[in-house]
Amino acid sequence: MDFVRLDLKRNRAWPWPEDSWGLDSMYGPDGWCRSCGIPLHEQTGPLTLQARGMSPVQGAWVPNWRFDTICVESTLGARLSNVYRLEMRPIAWYRNVKGQALQIVVPTVEPAWFDSDALRRAAVARHGTAGQDCPECGVWRWMPLSSKQLPPVRSSKRWDDYDVVASPEWFGDGAQSYHEVFVRRALAHAIASASPKDFKVTEISQWSAVS
Fold first, then answer.
1. Distance (Å, whole) CA 207 – CA 210
2. Omega before 111 cis (within 30°)?
3. What string of pLDDT tens digits covers the 211 residues of the chain?
4. Taking a C-beta distance cutoff of 8 angstroms, is the pair 42, 177 a contact?
């Protein structure tokens, strides 16, 4: 498959409101689980970023706390959207505007990317436990795993319709929840080239049989 990981070298910018890790702005006060941080419906509002600790917008980056969210400066976003199949939303700023920027909306693509037994073994080996059902919303989250700890990836023909994809599986612990995100190779290199201090392109070393 022609997909790779776009691994982070750093995070830039802090979402607002801080007490919701930016989720109130994106999903509404009642649109996300207060126990695990998983959204309860599709995104309805903008990702809102604070100017604190953020230089004027340039290139692409991932904000703190929202680790499966890719942001791009608007001119770069326009260039990318002319070439790749991307849905983008304008980013809002709390108080001081640092520049025009866009959020790449990453679609969740089923079926499951990972064999559940293999994920369970990997998570237990790393953490001593596989994960848990959230007591509030009931969604299962796997414990966080690095790219080297994840089992082989199972892609499907549905991936052919996208240039960036998010796993249906949720990962995380405490209030942190995230999807695994893979990016088509050419797009990943375009983003990493625009922001070499923020990203590096990493091969997905293990693929299982394509379903």
1. 8
2. yes
3. 799 999 999 999 999 999 999 999 999 999 999 999 999 999 999 999 997 777 788 999 999 999 999 999 999 999 999 999 999 999 999 988 889 999 999 999 999 999 999 999 999 999 999 999 999 999 999 999 998 899 999 988 999 999 999 999 999 998 889 999 999 999 999 999 999 999 999 999 888 865 5
4. no
User: In b/e form, how buried is each residue of 78-90, taking b as 16+ CB within 10 angstroms?
Assistant: eebeeebebebee
User: Using CA atoms, how far apart are residues 128 and 183, in angstroms rounded to an integer?
Assistant: 30
Backbone angles phi, psi at 114, to 5 degrees: -130, 145
Q: How far apart are CA 120 and CA 117, in angstroms?
A: 5
Delimit the domains of the chain by residue range: 3-105+185-202, 116-178
**Angle CA(141)–CA(39)–CA(43) in degrees, nearest 5?**
140
| C-alpha torsion sign, points 58, 68, 51, 9 | negative
- In angstroms, the CA 139 to CA 202 distance is 29
At residue 98, the 3 state secondary structure works out as coil
Rounded-to-5 percentages of helix, strand, coil across the chain: 20, 25, 50
